[in-house]
Amino acid sequence: MQWKTYGERQIYTNPWVNLCLVDVEQPDGRRWEHHVVRLRHLAVAAVVNDQREVLMMWRHRFITDSWAWELPMGLIEEGESPEAAAAREVEEETGWRPGPMKPLIYAEPANGITDSQHYVFRADGATHIGAPTEKNESDRIEWIPLDRVRAMIDRREIVSSGSLVGLLYVLMDESIR
């Protein structure tokens, strides 16, 4: 069943997020204003080396006041392709230059309230080019063996949706090789 929309108005906007009210009508005829969070789109990179390890960052998220492992990721800049954004984010956040990026999976987390698009890529291999240029992203950067990832997810050491989607897809891919 498809909902009908009759218009939208912004309540708040800044360079990263727009909060809107959308005039909607549900299939049962009920009409009301639904909150929608419009976010800039995100590129995520799962970089896997020859030792079957994935490049990850240990970081704090102030919103949930929690620490967890994440894949390199970031916002896609105006005029930038998702693939280029994923490669750029790996370099800025980790100091590693990834090999060629291959599309891995596309996801829309929380699409009942947001329009955030996540483009997840995989790169096989990377070259260390120096220290990360983005100093506010993580406390440490490590190559994590893929065979440890499932247990880390179970222990809630990996919780971000972009990281989970990418890692679970990589694990699925690796299991059928």
How would you describe this structure to a colleague?
The chain is an alpha+beta fold and 177 residues long. It has two domains: 36 residues, no CATH class; 134 residues, Alpha-Beta Complex (Nucleoside Triphosphate Pyrophosphohydrolase). The chain has three helices and twelve strands. It has a four-stranded mixed β-sheet. The protein has a three-stranded antiparallel β-sheet with strand order 1-2-3, with no helix packed on it. It has a three-stranded antiparallel β-sheet with strand order 6-5-12. The chain is elongated. The mean pLDDT is 94. GO terms for molecular function: hydrolase activity. Keywords: Hydrolase. Belongs to the Nudix hydrolase family. Its cofactor is Mg(2+). It comes from Streptomyces natalensis ATCC 27448.
Q: What is the CATH C level class of the largest domain, in words?
A: Alpha Beta
Low-confidence blocks of residues: none
Order of helices and strands: EEEEEEEHEEEEEHH
CATH topology of the largest domain: Nucleoside Triphosphate Pyrophosphohydrolase
Strand order of the largest sheet: 7-4-10-9
**Count of distinct strands:** 12
Task: Provide the CATH superfamily of the largest domain.
Answer: Nucleoside Triphosphate Pyrophosphohydrolase
Fraction of residues in helices?
A: 10-25%
Give the total of domains.
Answer: 2
The pLDDT mean sits at 94
CATH architecture of the largest domain: Alpha-Beta Complex
